[in-house]
Write a structure and sequence with these properties.
Blueprint: E1 2-3, H1 6-26, E2 33-39, H2 43-59, E3 62-68, H3 74-86, E4 92-95, H4 105-109, H5 123-131, H6 139-150, E5 159-163, H7 170-178, E6 187-191, H8 198-202, E7 207-210, E8 228-231, E9 235-238, E10 246-249, E11 264-265, H9 272-288
Length: 290
């Protein structure tokens, strides 16, 4: 089994970004500046935002964190988004998801200025991605493409099966792998909760991307020998051996896969997650250059 190390790759990219930032400073340009809005106290969201801020520090980016209480109204949140849209010192920003239930998340994302939408969630960026035009692509699927590239995994003509059709992972992943590019040129099958005979489809995947949010859903009998498995899922499961009583795991039952299995796989944690952060910073550097 070959491990695709997202953590090490993410650090390599952050080191490259650091060099690019130093070059900007030498040219008399400002540091790229990423802002994040977080609403409420969701511990997982707080942890993700914390990792993003820490990565900014590491790569020499400026960062700003806007923390709002759980009861923030749509109007108050839109006002914060407008402030960041109009703040010329900020190159790009994100609104950390999920938002509290009383907020219309889609309406908020549509208020983000597309040129600062480094998460790539605005319909303008999603539309450009589907047309193959330059845009900010969502960080998670971009990170997966980067991993395939850096690990020299051949994608042309391969059958890629994507489990999940969300706007932030499954759908953009389908677009990125099916485009005429390298990595790309895959024949893509996108699956969702109504897909029939799922295991028959996954067994034909040269590249299997699991992004459904169900712990250990993909079992060894669903995997083709020698396939490349990208596990996007982040699921918290009970684990009495841990002090916290729980741990994170992916959508793939990696612990059931034989060590002698000849394929490639991303672990959870340490696979796709760190790449998402690196690609967010990459998008921010690009925004700063515009
Ligand atoms: P969503 O809940 O938005 O989408 C889940 C998708 O999985 C849906 O399209 C759903 O189908 C599909 N699905 C659910 N059950 C099945 C099933 N039994 N068979 C086939 N398809 C199924 O999740 P996200 O895309 O936002 O995230 C997916 C996972 O990835 C989560 O664990 C999340 O935490 C993680 N994630 C990780 C990131 C990272 O940086 N590593 C970034 C973003 C997400 P339907 O549309 O029919 O409901």
């Amino acid at each position: 089994m070959h491990i695709i190390d997202g953590k090490a790759t993410s650090i390599a990219i952050q080191n490259e970004l650091k060099i690019a930032v130093d070059d900007r400073i030498k040219q008399g340009l400002k540091r790229p500046h990423l802002a994040a809005i977080i609403v409420g106290e969701n511990p997982a969201s707080r942890a993700y935002v914390g990792h993003k801020i820490k990565a900014c520090e590491y790569a020499g980016f400026e960062s700003t964190l806007v923390e709002l209480p759980q009861e923030t109204s749509d109007e108050a949140l839109k006002a914060e988004v407008t402030k960041l849209n109009n703040n010329s010192s900020i190159d790009g920003f994100i609104v950390q998801l999920p938002l509290p239930d009383h907020i219309d998340a889609q309406a908020i994302l549509e208020c983000v200025e597309p040129t600062k939408d480094v998460d790539g969630f605005h319909p303008v960026n999603a539309g450009k991605l589907s047309l193959g035009l330059p845009c900010f692509a969502p960080a998670t699927p971009s990170g997966i493409v980067e991993l395939l590239k850096r690990y020299g995994i051949e994608t042309e003509g391969k059958h890629a099966v994507i489990l999940g059709r969300s706007a932030i992972v499954g759908t953009p992943m389908t677009l990125l792998l099916s485009r005429n590019a390298n990595p790309g040129n895959c024949t893509v099958t996108m699956c969702h909760s109504r897909t029939q005979n799922l295991a028959d489809i996954t067994r034909s995947a040269d590249i299997l991307i699991a992004a459904i949010g169900k712990a250990h859903f993909v079992t060894p009998d669903m995997i083709k020998p020698g396939a490349v498995i990208i596990d996007v899922g982040i699921n918290r499961i009970e684990d009495a051996s841990r002090k916290s009583g729980s741990r994170l795991t992916g959508d793939v039952a990696m612990h059931l896969i034989d060590d002698q299995w000849g394929g490639h796989i991303t672990p959870v944690p340490g696979g796709v997650g760190p790449m998402t952060i690196a690609m967010l910073l990459k998008n921010t550097l690009e925004a700063a250059g515009k």
